[in-house]
Design goal:
By secondary structure, this protein is an all-alpha fold. The longest helix has 23 residues. It starts with a helix and ends with a helix.
Length: about 70
């Protein structure tokens, strides 16, 4: 790869990063715990995480009861 190709690739990447930064909204801290209520409402990924956590806990409890 030539220097010109590397420079072009770097310029392309810098433009892509600049575009992504314009699209991403900065996070702001929550002012209170109450603001966090409902943050994950209707979020299928959160529901899946909850399901997997429950499944894991049930498995661990079942294994500890076998002893």
């Amino acid at each position: 790869m030539t220097i010109q190709q590397l420079e072009q690739r770097l310029n392309d990447l810098e433009q892509e990063v600049a575009e992504l930064r314009r699209e991403v909204k900065p996070l702001r801290p929550f002012a209170s715990v109450a603001e966090t209520f409902g943050v994950f409402a209707n979020d299928p990924d959160f529901d899946e995480a909850v399901r997997l956590g429950r499944e894991y806990r049930e498995q661990i409890n079942a294994e500890s009861n076998e002893c």
